[in-house]
Design brief:
The structure is a homodimer.
Chain A: E1 24-33, H1 46-61, E2 70-73, H2 79-87, H3 93-97, E3 103-106, E4 112-116, E5 122-129, H4 133-150, E6 155-156, E7 160-161, E8 173-180, H5 182-186, H6 190-199, E9 202-205, E10 218-223, H7 231-259, H8 261-277, H9 283-298, H10 307-316, H11 319-326, H12 332-348
Helix pairs in contact in A: 2-11, 8-9, 8-12, 9-10, 10-12, 11-12
């Protein structure tokens, strides 16, 4: 497998299965780890950074979980390939935009991915379809265990795992869930809910990662606190919140179905009509219409179209994906044309 | 035949044939006539108005052209039926909103229609598909001749035919042509052309008649002057103007095809997508999208859809038509739903 093969496959987490997959797109667990006795990256020389990579490479390849993984030297990639990996949620903006020796390791079906020499020496993540934080935790914990057996991670009895940024100290864990909440947006409850969630220590972001505004009713909720709680407690807390939000979204969907059925039906079918016929469409409009169409599938207005197609499109309509898929650089207008083409092909099936 | 049968038939003039039918929807000739020795309607008593009707009824029924026509006593109609006849371009707002004895006579396929006791004692009109003013003139002239043989029309050697309003004195003729000029609208040339046409004595109106703003790129152009020129001269003058406008629209279409093809194609297919899937749509939006779709047919982006379907829809999506078609009164929201249903059914064929 090489990087270019990824374009022909669909990431496991987009398959649209798992608990509450009508509302929950995916669940993600990320761990931050640093090697014992090695300088943190912020102060490490290029030589030291290279040593980290040299040390980790054989260790990673020797684990059961990552034996057949794809190793990518980030510092050798083109801007397009970097953007492509960011769009697939496999690497961070920070890793892509960094300097010096960096690597990413991607398991088959992209279930697990590692970043070396991002903010920390090592970042491990898994993304699973649906609401599956405990499963995700088990998967990532197994990989972490395999690595910990071979190399030591910096750990303090008092603080837990030591990380470059104090916000990650403790478990080093970030748990996040991607939700599709169109009915809470339509009924204007989302603002209140977002604020309430933020007040009790969770972070609300958009689909396209840190610093992005929510577009198309996709919201990513993650824990702020990593210290003073066990991993299981953090997961249990966030799951409780997620279950509450799911309940609100379900109620709002029921309200729309009983009180505003014709209006929502019209909105859904117009979205379908535009997506099925437009000859050029920008990202922003496409994401919004795909979101409306997904609601239409969940409310059973649209038959014979599975929501995993729409999950896949959320990733595939992005700029680098369109360019990789077409095998060449594309201007913004060309991308709008190719995006419309791809969407038509996928949703008319 | 009775009035309710009209809803199941398509007016002859909507069939989308004839010269330049890619741009010219229809050609209309209307004559105003008054009976010799009878008081003009503006000053006539109800008794006198009744006499006009009694006099004209057997005369009209005795002509070849109108032997099988439908006679409608306008003063006995419901508001819905009045609106229905206005929407079909068979009677005027003025006849519908008038008082006292009034009648409309409609030939088979609605080619010819007469109004009794509108502003003048008699108004005769024919509407033909495409650019066909001379044909229309021949048809209406024949009916006028059949009537003139039986009853005399008020005529002065100096002024010509005498009419209630001085703007009609002379020939009593109004020639008008309904044009579809989307490319002149898109390329922002329409304003300049409208002004130029108005300056040389022609009137520019919308599709839905006197006093209406043009919607959806449909423009009706008619002569202002009825005096001092023969009917053939008036027709020849307006045809010259129409040919010039057709030429401008054709150039603009060519420009769009060569310079803005992708953009127009997208606009056309989005219009199709919305029309083919919307679950509710108001008149204004429907007319605009149908206009864009008609352009798409003429530019050959849309295949297997004839423009006569769109001509028919321009009439059929109006409020009274939707209510007659559904056999009951409908609220505005219900009409929006039925309008969307009708459009979907017609354009998906």
């Amino acid at each position: 497998m090489n990087l270019n093969d990824l374009i022909t496959q669909t990431s496991e987490w987009l398959k649209g299965t798992g608990a509450h997959s009508d509302i929950v797109i995916s669940s993600r667990i990320r761990l931050a780890r640093n090697l014992i006795g090695a300088t943190f990256n912020s102060r490490a020389s290029e030589e030291k950074r290279n040593e980290i990579i040299s040390l980790l490479r054989p260790v990673i390849k020797s684990t059961d979980s990552l034996r057949n993984s794809l190793w990518i030297d980030i510092d050798k990639l083109s801007r397009l390939d970097l953007q492509f990996l960011i769009e697939r949620h496999l690497i961070s903006h920070e890793l892509a935009g960094g300097e010096g020796a960096r690597a990413a390791i991607i398991s088959e079906m992209e279930t697990i991915s590692l970043m070396i020499n991002e903010e920390d020496h090592l970042r491990l993540q898994t993304i699973q379809s649906g609401l599956a934080l405990m499963d995700a935790w088990r998967i990532v914990n197994k990989v972490e265990g395999e690595l910990a057996d071979r190399i030591g991670f910096a750990f303090s009895q008092e603080f837990g795992y030591l990380t470059a940024c104090p916000t990650n100290v403790g478990t080093g864990m970030r748990a996040s869930v991607m939700l599709h909440l169109p009915s809470l947006v339509i009924t204007r409850q989302i603002e209140k809910i977002s604020q309430a969630v933020a007040k009790i220590g969770f972070v609300v972001r958009g689909f396209y990662g840190e610093g992005t505004e929510p577009i198309g009713d996709y919201f990513q909720i993650s824990n702020q606190v990593t210290l003073g709680q066990s991993e299981e407690e953090i997961i249990s807390n966030i799951e409780q919140i997620i279950h509450q939000i799911i309940g609100h979204e379900e109620n709002a969907r029921q309200f729309l179905l009983t009180r505003r059925k014709k209006q929502i039906e019209d909105r859904v079918f117009r979205a379908y009509g535009t997506l099925a016929y437009a000859r050029r469409i920008d990202s922003n409009e496409a994401i919004k219409l795909l979101s409306t169409l997904r609601l239409g599938i969940e409310l059973d207005f649209i038959k014979n179209l599975d929501h995993h197609i729409l999950n896949e499109l959320l990733i595939a309509i992005q700029p680098a994906h369109l360019q990789k898929l077409n095998g060449k650089a594309l201007t913004a207008v060309e991308r709008d044309i190719k995006r419309a083409e791809l969407i038509r092909k996928k949703i008319k099936k």
